[in-house]
């Protein structure tokens, strides 16, 4: 995800149907994975809070499911970290990829306190992006490059690089077998975690409308959840055909953050 632009999108958005709240059992099961999406969708978007992805403006005839959210808990976090990838590492720890040139890093963070437990500072010409954990290996991609890095989750000094076939790197996720990747377009990639060969690529669509700006990714219950960059929306995507199964709206979360003391 590149730095947020100062421009805004001036478009009148139709009022979505009354959201169906996600139940707490689902939130509890996916809370760690969803944390990255909540943070990224809320922290850096600059469009109007009521502006959905363009695909939602087509007023499709077929019904769709729309969800809100339950805020379960809040944790402290470094306000200077330009968070691009975030995942739960077990034992009250997070792994985090931060962006911006000369400020990009990979971190291990103590969840209850926000304290950085381990840290690798990336080269100044690298812009850190999506991050995912497969086994004991952390995979990270970088913006505007085909370069990625693999880190030992226990020792960040043990790392190596790889090259992928996406346009550049935005988001990463895994189902434990393949890597799902995004490059800011409407494409969702499936890559082999050893050869990085693209095994499958689908176009993300809502009804018949492409959904561009696919950003941070998480894999939850056989779905790929994707933050749509510069909107307050998460698309729940079928990795089989790229169809958006439902939407999660987070505009209330960002509005609450703006109104809070933080």
Architecture overview:
The chain is mainly beta and 262 residues long. The protein contains 2 helices and 19 strands. The protein has helices at 24-43, 251-259, and strands at residues 65-67, 83-90, 93-98, 105-110, 116-121, 128-134, 137-142, 147-152, 155-163, 171-174, 179-182, 187-191, 198-203, 205-206, 209-210, 214-220, 223-228, 233-237, 244-249. A 5-stranded mixed β-sheet has the order 1-19-18-17-16, with helices on one face. The chain has a 4-stranded antiparallel β-sheet with strand order 2-3-4-5. Strands 6-7-8-9 form a 4-stranded antiparallel β-sheet, with no helix packed on it. It starts with 23 loop residues before the first helix and ends with a helix. Mean pLDDT is 83; it is low at 6-49.
Estimated share of beta-strand residues: 35-45%
Helix content estimate: 10-25%
Which word captures the global form? globular
Number of helices: 2
Pfam family, one: Glu_cyclase_2
Protein name: Glutaminyl-peptide cyclotransferase
InterPro entries: QCT, Quino_amine_DH_bsu
Organism: Urochloa decumbens
């Amino acid at each position: 995800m590149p730095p947020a632009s100062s421009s805004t999108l001036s478009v009148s958005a139709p009022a979505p149907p009354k959201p169906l709240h996600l139940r707490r059992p689902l939130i509890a099961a996916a809370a760690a994975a969803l944390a990255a999406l909540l943070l990224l969708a809320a922290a850096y978007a600059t469009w109007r809070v009521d502006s959905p992805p363009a695909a939602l403006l087509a007023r499709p005839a077929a019904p769709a499911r729309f969800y809100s959210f339950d805020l379960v808990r809040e944790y402290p976090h470094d306000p200077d970290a330009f968070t691009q990838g975030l995942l739960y590492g077990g034992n009250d720890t997070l792994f985090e990829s931060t962006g911006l040139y000369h400020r990009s890093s990979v971190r291990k963070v103590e969840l209850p306190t926000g304290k950085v437990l381990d840290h690798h500072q990336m080269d100044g010409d690298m812009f850190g992006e999506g991050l995912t954990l497969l086994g004991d290996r952390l995979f990270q991609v970088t913006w505007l490059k085909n370069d990625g890095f693999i880190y030992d989750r226990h020792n960040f000094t043990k790392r190596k690089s790889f090259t992928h076939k996406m346009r550049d790197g935005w988001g990463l996720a895994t189902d434990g077998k393949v890597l799902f990747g995004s490059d800011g377009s409407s494409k969702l990639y499936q890559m082999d975690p050893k050869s990085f060969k693209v095994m499958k690529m689908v176009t993300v669509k809502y009804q018949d409308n492409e959904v561009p700006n696919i950003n941070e990714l998480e894999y939850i219950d056989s779905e790929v959840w994707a933050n749509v960059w510069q909107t307050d929306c998460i698309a729940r995507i079928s990795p089989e055909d790229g169809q958006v199964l439902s939407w999660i709206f987070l505009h209330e979360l960002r509005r609450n953050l703006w109104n809070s003391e933080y």
